[in-house]
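Predict structure. Input: Monoacylglycerol lipase, 275 residues.
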Amino acid sequence: MTEITQNLIAKDGLALFARAWPIETPKGVIALIHGFGEHSGRYAHLAEFFNKNGYSVYALDNRGHGKSEGKRGHAPKYDAYLDDIETFLEFVTSKTSPAPLFLYGHSMGGNLALNYVLRRKPVLKGLIVSGPWIQLAFEPKPILITLGKLMRTVFPGFSQDSGLAQEHISKDPTVVEAYKNDPLVHGLITASASIGILEAAAFLNSFSGAMPVPTLLMHAAEDKLTSQPASEAFAHRVSGPITYKKWDGMYHEIHNEPGKLEVFNYMLGWMERNV
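Output follows.
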């Protein structure tokens, strides 16, 4: 498997880092948006699986994450994330067209991917989201929300620790340990980023229109970080071509669970039907 890296320039001039695991003449391409606090390098095993099954994989480090520039966990406004996805997809398309393109987002990346598709209406073969941040699985402390809203106005770069429970990302202890020791992983989020994402999540949590592209929405039944019931309600509420899959016995990162190969094969089967 070959990994290639690329620096992209965001619309506001920030340097964004992207990885690619390309293959010759792919039957499809996955453009991946990772979750909060992590980075694209944590998806190499997913890329290896899909490479072996005929798909190229490209992955972006969100601004303020991984090897991309920007204050950790910060975006001046929510639309900056969507603009970055647009820049990223333009790059992917320039390298892979006319291969069918699938956008894949996990957790915060699922929030971003869903909002990007609903608001920007890109040309895609399909959308895949796992554990999307439509609603958190726990109630954030009201004082933190109030402080975030206040600071977004007067000091948007004000940082707080997200308080993410690392032990709940996966039931595989080696995954949790690697996450804790990964120097590119962080737990910081700023006022403007946190409130922007919460507002975008609230939009999804009340959205009842049509999905403009075929969509696969997956969520772990035992997710303690983002809400599985909110994902299921979203899938039942919207119209259009959407498939919902609940994974019993799994934590938040279904792609990092002991049963991940079953998840990958399910994704592959759905993609093959849509290609």
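DSSP finds eight helices and ten strands in the chain.
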